[in-house]
Design brief:
Strand content: 15-25%
CATH topology of the largest domain: TIM Barrel
Oligomer: single chain
Distance between the termini: 30 Å
Radius of gyration: 21 Å
Number of strands: 20
Number of helices: 14
Structural class: alpha/beta
Amino acid sequence: MSAHLLIRQATVLIDRAFQVSDVLVQDGKIAQVAPEIAIDSDTPVIDATGLTLLPGVIDPQVHFREPGLEYKEDLFTASCACAKGGVTSFLEMPNTKPLTTTQEMLNDKLDRASQKCLVNYGFFIGATAENLPDLETANPTCGIKIFMGSMHGALLVDQESALERIFASGRRLIAVHAEDQARIRARREQFAGITDPAVHSQIQDNQAALNATQLALKLSKKYQRRLHILHLSTGEEAELLRHDKPVWVTAEVTPQHLVLNTSAYETIGTFAQMNPPLRSPQDNEILWNALRDGVIDFIATDHAPHTIEEKAQGYPNTPSGMPGVETSLPIMLTQAKQGKCTVEQVANWMSTAVAKAYKIPNKGIIAPGYDADLVLVDLDTYKPVLREELQTKCGWSPFEGWNLTGWPVVTIVGGQVVFDRGKLHTDVRGKALSFG
């Protein structure tokens, strides 16, 4: 691979505005951004006329299933899906087999990723009621993941006393899956025997999410502990944060919680089942408003694939989760074209703000000195989501058949072209992310 690359005449997002420019890449970094750049005759050139250049997407919540669940997905197939979707970096969750709860298991994931991942990578350390020392010493990690609900086994930390010990010890970022497990248990009994998957949104209802978010916020304020609320899903949580959000607290939302709602159960059944569940159209609108107003800071996919066979088992035997890294950027750019937001906002929510929140150096901005993690998108061409074109191993999408624009044309990781007009360059390898 050449250490030099010129992207010619792209519409480039620079300082939150667009201008037609050349971008010169050298040794994995952005070297120059200018209206016209002179180069040697042997420098590779990407003709980007008519295309828009954005900072590569940083997806801060994915479940890539390796080790132990590779039949659903693995780090190679997931990173291929990332490259195709314009995702140049990801932060992955600890609920693999074995769990990522020790330095040894974190090292194992980092080693696997270095050999398999086409894009850049980072990993959360998972909290249990027993591994407090590991939570503060494991390195490098983007943060501590706590499942307050929707989990079983060692990763479920649903007792306030155990949660308080974690919040009280150390300074590392804590990211919470905020659902009230006690309420979920009670409502499972209440709705037992119902096989309509739409009941999932009643069992794990808005109140279950609000209860847990209130508790996490209380503990964060008590200890002034850096808190991130994963996949915020309800209007009640958004309004809580609108009126009570310390400067050290951030929150994210998934594309599916913005564009899908409980009506999806009627059309795609259990393929719409996820945790926290899809909500009402009113929740969609409140979340959109909170995102546009800055109450919600950024976007994550919560890419959580399961096989078609698993999803076909029938509720309540079906696992929760859906894939998303291939479609998240086109979904959001299509929303921008429809007037729900701007392209600049999408780039901030899907890259710049993520890098800032997790203190990932040299990412998320197109400027000299920053890493050349970039995606060229076509904002004028619409194409449908087709199952046969997906790179994710699970082989399905909740957005199958949706006609989207903003599809990646070229994805660049560390100055290397990893996806180019439908072709993956599977010899490219990303790097481990660092966190300030």
